[in-house]
Amino acid sequence: MEGMITVFGWAIFCLAIAPVYGEYYSQTTPAAVAEKVTQLHFFLHSTLSGENPSAVMVARSNLTNDDDSPIPFGSLFAIDSPLRVGPEPTSTVIGNAQGLELSSSQDSSKFTIVMYIDFAFTSGKFNGSSFSVFSRNPVTEGDREVAIVGGRGQFRLARGFAEIKTSFLNATNGDAILDYNVTLYHF
């Protein structure tokens, strides 16, 4: 009995002292770095056709087998598309866009994708830096805006938006050239 009282006493002692050693610790210090704003302009060249496409379908809903559009509802695409300084296919490549696009609109007249894409720069002033987009993109609208949710390198902690215009679209095969005007807020 005496042994149980001793064990019980130690248990109460351990439970009483645990909160002292298990406190949550947090310290916040003000950031001394000024925020920067960067404006970018480039063209994304997306190719679904040909022998070397930059976007390929990796999954497709079995509910849309009779949909003959190049990008049917429920389709998931992996992309690795070049970023170029101009709309011409021969213009200088400055980076690439890699990620996923999901066709999320059942109404083909209001074609919409949800995109998660990392825009990485491989040359120039921002070589080695990238920003990430995770947003809804209503493709059939003339001017549209997508959200920038992060970045790395010179765009660390980026946020902002990209305004997109379709410079070229082949509705038969899905090939497109997109004009991006990007505003980034970063440190």
From TrEMBL:
Coiled-coil region: none
Keyword set includes Transport: no
Entry superkingdom: Eukaryota
Keyword annotations: Apoplast, Secreted, Signal
GO biological process terms, semicolon-separated: phenylpropanoid biosynthetic process
Subcellular location(s) per record: Secreted, Extracellular space, Apoplast
Pfam families documented for this protein: Dirigent (PF03018)
One GO location term (cellular component): apoplast
InterPro entries associated with the record: Allene_oxi_cyc_Dirigent (IPR044859), Dirigent (IPR004265)
Signal listed as a keyword: yes
Signal peptide: 1-22
Cross-referenced PANTHER family: NUCLEOPORIN-RELATED
Protein's job: Dirigent proteins impart stereoselectivity on the phenoxy radical-coupling reaction, yielding optically active lignans from two molecules of coniferyl alcohol in the biosynthesis of lignans, flavonolignans, and alkaloids and thus plays a central role in plant secondary metabolism.
Record family assignment: Belongs to the plant dirigent protein family.
Assembly information from the UniProt record: Homodimer.
The protein, known as: Dirigent protein
Organism, scientific name: Corchorus olitorius
